[in-house]
Amino acid sequence: MAIALGALMAFGTVPTPLWPLFAGRDGFGSTMVTVAFAAMVVGAAAGFLLLGHLSDRLGRRRIIVPALLTSALAALLLVTWHGVTGLLVARVVTGIGTGLMASTATAYLSDLYSRAHPKRTGSPVPGAVAAGRRELRRAWPWDHWLPGCWPSGPQRP
Questions:
Q1: Can you tell me the distance from the alpha carbon of 2 to that of 113, in angstroms, rounded to the nearest whole number?
Q2: Which helix H or strand E contains 92, and what residues bound it?
Q3: Tens-place pLDDT, residues 101-136
């Protein structure tokens, strides 16, 4: 599972050295490269928000294969559909596959961890992230203007 997740996450960045080739072949500039990178984020957001819950309803294993197939389709589109439109569609599809896989695989890995270690309450990662955020707040207390940094409203340091 972790290997499949890692491979799919890598697929989002592996084509990066090909961007100059695509730009030369299809005749677009650096702005379009930026738009293409953003297109993947749009697809990932859609994958997370619209499809991320499917593994809770249908089961983790039933979603892994479609997520991998979605990414395979994105690779096929990237190679065969030339032009800016093809590139943007391929990047959105890459993002959808990435969002679907990331939401499913992380939940599945958490389930597997819970089964392997039933007496433990969970992974230490969320606690480490929260502790890191707390320590950052202590080191740099001027981030009260960032959204999501306060529980019920802006707080003064």
A1: 12
A2: helix 84-116
A3: 888 888 887 778 778 877 776 666 666 766 766 676
